[in-house]
Automatic annotation (TrEMBL):
It comes from the Bacteria. This is Peroxiredoxin. The chain crosses the membrane at residues 20-47. Gene3D superfamilies: DsrEFH-like (3.40.1260.10). Keywords: Membrane, Transmembrane, Transmembrane helix. The keyword Membrane applies. It comes from Pseudooceanicola lipolyticus.
Length: 122
């Protein structure tokens, strides 16, 4: 049985105040470049990364601005999932988030892991 996978789930808890958010999206974009199907599950403070205008608050040179990293991720087919209780606890609704963000529970992430997806956490 092969341990090779073509799927990656990135779990993010760091928000707009952390350089790790830019690092995570840089790695996620690199994974797409290498041929992986990539899913990002946002929880805790990472929800603010997909709040309208939230991602515009972070730029960690020499990396691309976070807004550009996220736009590239989505344009290249990456999937963004947002934790429902984390969205709700911040008073956000679907219309407060970037287009294309899917508010869904951890079961979506677990389904990909059960299919063999590799995982990274930030």
């Amino acid at each position: 049985m092969s341990n090779v996978t073509d799927r990656l789930v990135v779990v993010m808890t760091k928000g707009i105040d952390s350089e790790l958010s830019s690092v995570a999206f840089t790695i996620a974009n690199g994974a797409i470049t290498s041929g992986l199907t990539v899913f990002v599950f946002l929880t805790s403070a990472a929800i603010d990364l997909v709040r309208l205008k939230g991602q515009e608050m972070t730029h960690v040179p020499p990396l691309d601005p976070l807004a550009q990293l996220i736009a590239d991720f989505q344009a290249r087919g990456g999937t963004l999932w947002a934790c429902p209780p984390c969205v709700k606890s911040r008073g956000y609704a679907q219309e407060d988030l970037l287009p294309g963000v899917v508010i869904t529970g951890a079961s979506a992430m677990h389904d990909e892991i059960k299919k063999g997806a590799a995982t990274l956490s930030f």
